[in-house]
Design brief:
With 269 residues, the protein is α/β, with parallel strands linked by helices. It has a domain at 6-160 and 193-214 and 261-265: Rossmann fold (3-Layer(aba) Sandwich). The chain is built from 9 helices and 8 strands. It has helices at 6-9, 33-52, 71-78, 90-102, 139-149, 165-177, 197-206, 223-234, 240-244; strands spanning 61-65, 82-87, 107-111, 124-130, 150-161, 209-219, 249-252, 258-265. Strands 3-2-1-4-5-8-6-7 form an 8-stranded mixed β-sheet. Helix 2 packs parallel to helix 3. The structure holds S-adenosylmethionine.
Length: 269
């Protein structure tokens, strides 16, 4: 798999993360839905992997690539890991830094992109990258950088969107484009930048990362019910807070829309 073309990359609106104000932690903003709807599943999944590998939090260096306002990094720090978050967006990092200070959490936040991680080789035991891989310009470079900064035996945990007909309808058309239901800004995601499971497996393999598994992610209510809630949110009958309490993302057998997985670095892979 190649990096995306400039024409496609120019479509994605990553400027959303540079807007003024705290859109990550203030409850009535769309980005806060990451905290209420998606994060519980990711954190549970990461914990399961940590347990499987008997990872001792106190001595473990964890990096979150594309940490945004720190929603996931804070959970990692709270588990006792030595936590670092990097993101290209300075406004988002400032929100993350201030929120961690208020919560008395020690997290090292740095500015940087996944394509050029500002860390030495073999620095981290775990790298997390959630809802970011489908935002980057050069995915092969990001995966090779993640592998470079991981120690041998280190774990890479990620989630992303699959490039299927269903993801186009649900994530692009319904959530962003069709005004009847859209509650996300246009071009928050660009379908052409979504990643098929086999494409990421290929890149992992190429970069000494031994792929282990993928699990699908779906809402714990029917899609029909979700559509009704989206409509209520779109016409203002539900706030983002109320909408965020209606359901949760959970594990699914289907990877058609979103999936999460992990790989282990093996220098001889
Ligand atoms: C949907 S947010 C996810 C934030 C965070 N991972 C979370 O789940 O709470 C996408 C993030 O990716 C960041 N991003 C965009 N391009 C990136 C790149 N090339 N390298 C690293 N992060 C990037 C954005 O600034 C934004 O904070």
């Amino acid at each position: 798999m190649q990096k995306v073309t400039e024409e496609i990359y120019n479509k994605i609106n990553n400027e959303i993360y540079n807007l003024e104000g705290d859109r990550w932690w203030q409850p009535d903003f769309s980005l806060n839905l990451i905290k209420t709807l998606v994060n519980p599943f990711r954190v549970g999944y990461a914990k399961k992997v940590f347990e499987e590998f008997k990872i001792d939090s106190g001595k473990t260096n964890v990096l979150e690539v594309g940490c945004g306002g720190g929603i996931l990094s804070e959970e990692i720090a709270r588990m006792g890991f030595i936590t670092t978050g990097i993101d290209p967006s300075e406004p988002s990092l400032n929100i993350a830094i201030n929120h961690a200070i208020k919560g008395n959490l020690k997290i090292n936040y740095e500015k940087g992109t996944g394509e050029n991680l500002p860390f030495q080789n073999n620095s981290f035991d775990v790298v997390l990258c959630c809802d970011v891989l489908e935002h980057v310009y050069d995915l092969p470079k990001v995966i090779s950088e993640i592998s470079r900064v991981l120690k041998n035996g280190g774990i890479f945990i990620y989630d992303t969107f699959n490039r299927t007909y269903f993801s186009k309808i649900s994530t692009i058309k319904i959530l962003q484009e069709w005004r009847r239901w859209a509650i996300m800004p246009p071009n928050l995601h660009v379908w052409e930048m979504f990643i098929k499971p086999d494409e990421i497996k290929f890149l992992l393999q190429k970069n000494q990362l031994r792929w282990k598994e993928h699990h699908g992610i779906k809402p714990n209510i029917s899609y029909l019910k979700m559509i009704r809630y989206l409509r209520k949110r779109a016409i203002g009958e539900l706030s983002y807070v109320e909408f965020g309490k209606k359901f949760l993302m959970v594990e699914s057998y289907s990877t058609q829309i979103m999936y999460m997985g992990y790989a282990v670095k093996h220098s001889d892979a």
